[in-house]
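Reply to dn_fold:

You asked what the input looked like. This is it:
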Amino acid sequence: MNKLPAPLQNVINHLARLPGMGPKSSLRSALAILKLSQSDARDFGRAIYNLHDELALCARCGSLAAQSPCSICADPNRARDVLCLVSEWDSLLVMEEGGFYQGQYMILGGLISPLDNMPPEALELERLRARLREGEINEVVLALGATVEADTTAQYIKDLILREFVGIRVFRLAQGIPQGGEVKHMDRETLRQSLKYKQEI
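and this is what came back:
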């Protein structure tokens, strides 16, 4: 096979660093970009270039947003007394797509996993403490999935809340989620049922 032109190979190399992108899919994507009009290709490149500058982290929940606070935290119609903890932003997106949860969110930034160099200190626990100190929250729902890491994280957070914030009740999603399942991979109905029949822990 002929050696690819350096500019094309450069784009392929960058695409291959993305999750789920192997050599063949990176080549296909690079060729698809090449087929765009010059104007569309420039717009695409500009959108990637500006992504970091035009996105913000919500100071309250840690979500990606165009401004802080995000639209969810700023929505006066959402319940202020229920806080749903998710590991990452994509789990929040899945919960929101279902339209069945109308409370607040907090993104932890991962799950406790010593093997992956994720100790409890790597999570957004200070942001969580700050939210709970405000006094609005009386119920925390752990929407972390059903993996070993999720269970470890749930137990750690439950212990933290019971120790530092007496009176706040802690729930987890009902076990409609299969063992080893992650929230971001669940269908809407499973999530809706899991939230409806959440279990206090």
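The mean pLDDT is 87.
Hope that clears it up.
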